[in-house]
Write a structure and sequence with these properties.
Layout (H helix, E strand, L loop, with lengths): L2 E7 L5 H18 L3 E6 L7 H10 L4 E6 L6 H17 L4 E4 L7 H18 L3
Parallel strand pairs: 1-2, 1-3, 3-4
Length: 127
Amino acid sequence: MKTAILMMAHGSRVADANDAAREVAKMVQEISGMEIVEVAFRELHEPNIQQGIDACVAHGVQRILLMPYFLFMGAHVQHDLPEEIIEARKRYPELIMEMGEHLGAHRKLAEIEAERISEALTRLGWS
């Protein structure tokens, strides 16, 4: 069965923030080897989640793994994103859709933050 990944990000009025989500999606596609990795936004920017699901369907997939690109388990991850999936299941009852885990507290994220701290301390001459 053909599978797509839909990265679901918050969305921002700042275009660069949305571009960063797209850049991460490209990296995920390269690293994972997944053929289809789309990005959609919960609010403030298009494509919205339903449009992102439509884009995946247009690729002829039978399954979509919807990945929350959210750091914390807030209202969007707990309520809004599952509601989006419920709505999409009404439109595509034959499509298999499941949601993965949000980013959360992960050692790799802590390593990135420690790297950024080290860079800032060096740049400021505080190290």
